[in-house]
Amino acid sequence: MGEKSEKFVQPAIPRFDGYYDFWSMTMENFLRSRELWSLVEDGIPTMAVGTSPASEMQRKSVEEAKLKDLKVKNFLFQAIDREILETILDKSTSKAIWESMRKKYQGSTKVKRAQLQALRKEFELLVMKEGEKVDSFLGRTLAVVNKMKSNGEIMEQSTIVSKILRSLTSKFNYVVCSIEESNDLSTLSIDELHGSLLVHEGRIWGQQEEEQALKVSQDERTGRGRGRGGFRGGRGRGRGGRTVMNKALVECFKCHTLGHFQYECPEWERKVNYAELEGDEEVLLMAYLELSKTNREDVWFLDSGCSNHMTGNKEWFCNMEGDLNKTVKLGNDMTLSVVAKGSVRVQVDGITQVISDVYYVPELRNNLLSMGQLQEKGLAILIQDGTCKVFHPDKGVIMQTSMSGNRMFYLFASKATKNFMCLQTEEIMEKEAHLWHCRFGHLNHDGIKMLAHKNMVIGLPALKNTKEKCQTCIIGKQGAGIDSGESPNGGSSTHALPVARASPQPQPQPIPQPTVRASMRERRTPTYLADYEVGEENDPTRFEDAEKQKIWREAMMSEIESIEKNQTWELMALPEGVKPIGVKWVYKTKLNEDGEVEKYKARLVAKGYAQSYGIDYTEVFAPVARLDTVRTILAVAAQSSWEVFQLDVKSAFLHGELKEDVYVNQPEGFVKKGEEEKVYKLKKALYGLKQAPRAWYNMIEAYFLRENFERCPSEHTLFTKSKEGKFIIVSLYVDDLIFTGNDRSFCDEFKSSMMLEFEMSDLGKMKYFLGVEVKQCQDGIFICQRRYAREVLARFGMENSNSVKNPIVPGTKLHKDQSGERVDETLFKQLVGSLMYLTVTRPDLMFVVCLISRFMASPRVSHWLAAKRILRYLKGTTELGVFYKRGESNMKLVGYTDSDYAGDLDDRKSTSGYVFMMASGAVSWASKKQSVVALSTTEAEYIAAAACVCQCVWLRRVLEKVGFAEDEETVIMCDNSSAIQLSKHPVFHGKSKHIDVRFHYLRELVNDGVVKLCHCPTEDQIADIFTKPLKLEQFLKLRKMLGVIDLSEFNISHRLSEEGTSRGMDFGLTKLVEVLKELKDVCATTTRQIQRWLVVP
């Protein structure tokens, strides 16, 4: 047997490409494999002086080392380009060359530090591109990581894993969730993550339907062969003959339904209506300049330098989507505008084909097919022997053309006009939209659009709004018959028109049904809803819809006038290398406190999400008024018999001056003719910009300080000013200002000054602020959120529920309930969030809302039922609010603190609650689970009191700034004697030595005379309502002690006060209580009826 000689392939010498770290690693490995690295690392050994034999051996060793060093230098010369070699030719040894390269391209410690900063930024900005493979993305990421490590960065593997997971595209969202839930990220290796992502990527690509750029639809050709088999029922023995099959048993390999073949599948036609979401990357059109001399409409050029199909002839399109804000760039840097995108239907060699995602560029003179886009759609392109062929993976060659004389490939095509799904008329499109509307249970068209946009339904096409009215929806939404005049509540009702009764019609015999125990009384809409409008249209969400209505056109014109009047921007050409920010219109119908239309507002908003930190903005934080501050100001005004006024700054954000250069596109409907390519440079802020709130706050703060106002250091949106005994308080919430003071003329002077500086809306007395209804009278100030409460009930379908008297069943103990059935987490969070804002004026809801909020991470049926009970309680108490009485003799701030020891069944932590009272009403309250486990009730009470005094210190500072400083200790009422003793001196050392130092802040404040803990009976502990479910009697008692009353009580008190003043009548407190008790029996009558009943003749 002959021996086979094995050939050894010499490894290539690593070439230096500018990346020193990678090159040095590969070059070192190369030299080590040849046993030459010691020459670079240690250099040529020096020979000792002498002539001994040992020295002679050493001399030979040195000579050999010099020879090897020459080899290393030879390798280095081959690895380094000539330009770099010219800078290192004076280096005599390979070690010197290596050191020179290292100093130049790796740098010193300072250089490494600078490089590391740049690499850190690059690492943070790394994101996976749409369509990018997992291998490519991980390769880019790990390349940056390796560079960072070579520059001295110490990076944990878990950090890299977390970065990769949060940088993946949206199609990997469920994969990321799965990995995060099933793996410990601190121990998950990058290789394991890489393998998991590759598996999921394979599944994603396998499950996605292949979108076709070109689909072939040949006219129906019946292949009849010679001989038998060409006719129906034949056995197909002749050449070319075929038997007609029963298609009812045929399964389509595309949609997997029976009745048709794959090539006949309607999914192909339906796919034509899909539109891809393209990025905003600049489209390159490199070969267009070479084609400018050709202008034949029937020619389509195959262009490898064009990144997208495009044409300048609108007649080619069978469907089109407009409003595409893109540009294409030519080889001479000239740009053309892309107006729309759609599908084109052509005939090539008698075969009908559809090209999807074609750009419509009106200024383009030729038709271009992008080779890159064809390959992206799954097609293969072969150019060989002067012929270009386009292959479909299933259908083979679908296009073929020969090279022209000027070395170009083009196709001759004609417009196809018959028998294809692409040519859908408006009527067909409307019928299709109506069909999907019926299939989804008569879902509104906006809902269907959302399903299609979010890919929530496979096969749902992108539909347009239909003008056709659905008769079924109209019939289904019609209410009951007209009210015949009888009031369901026993009183007089609104006048109804006479009803002409139709003659009875014969009815079919009813089908027997199981007996259901339900009331057979006639159900009618409650009379208090008689004045509400049904079928109110929503605000428009698109410019196309808004411009059709006069009210919105006027609103948009008013917004543009406001912007130009304020000199917010200037029109100019876009600087090179700068990307403008888009803008959009937002429409909102403004309502007053009675739910009536106040005005129609159109706001031009910048798309701030496209801004980049450090380039378009830096600082974004802007403070707003705390609602505790607003309630405190109202309580102070009520005690002092002051009036509270309100101002609104028109287009507030347009006043803030920008420090950065920001460019925005021209808004829809207001593009300057002849200057379409220009953009606006912002001189002042625009709504939607990330820095807009900050810029506005800096502007308004500078104004207040310029007008000699003092800013409260504890509340940066609270400003005060005093002059010659006159005093004014101003609180700012973005563009809404409330102000009050002891002199009306001083307030008017401030108002006039504001109107000279800014464009303002004078809203008069404070009536409606951030959804809070404010009623002022000579008896006090009442705040409530009745309109918002009704909106919450309607949003969650509880407006017709049966009311209850307390928000939670006494003794209820909620826990995680892991064995219970899960409910919709998103809906539960929406409910909790809606109820949380309702606690602004409803302290009686604070505990139960905070209680159910503990289970938002994993809500169960038991938690949902508890939340629904809150809505049932809200149903009967929508008009409850806090009442601050005027002229109270006691101006002092009083606090109450309490806790529920180990009330949480899951972690046995206690619940803290506190409330502060002024003007007989609550101004600040809270309910919160403690962060540590208390070992006794004393500990729990002590921790709760410590949280209470922290809020007390803040309130004292606010009151001091508004002219009501607390000269004496603030009394904090507590029902635990041990906690009170512990706050005064360190008693019970053995039981309290483990308490955290931060809780002993309470003892320091007591010793300094800032607060004083006093004992109160448990039945009078108002804060008890914030810590646990109470019995009904105790709950109602404490709710009243909080100053929470019904709006009807406030109106009665206001009416009686007015009548007593005008007629000299003295209504005592006893008489008022008797009147209120009588009114309890007439709970269904309206407030207006109650007032009419109380009028004294």
From TrEMBL:
List, for all copies, the residue spans of the domain called CCHC-type. Answer: 252-267
Bias type Basic residues, positions: 224-240
Keyword Zinc-finger in annotation: yes
The domain of life is Eukaryota
Region described as Disordered: 215-240, 481-519
Query: From the Swiss-Prot or TrEMBL record, what is one GO molecular function term?
Result: nucleic acid binding
Give start-end positions of Polar residues composition bias.
486-495
Q: Could you list this entry's UniProt keywords, alphabetically sorted.
A: Metal-binding, Zinc, Zinc-finger
CDD domains documented for this protein: RNase_HI_RT_Ty1
Q: What is this protein called?
A: GAG-pre-integrase domain
Instruction: Print the organism lineage.
Output: Eukaryota, Viridiplantae, Streptophyta, Embryophyta, Tracheophyta
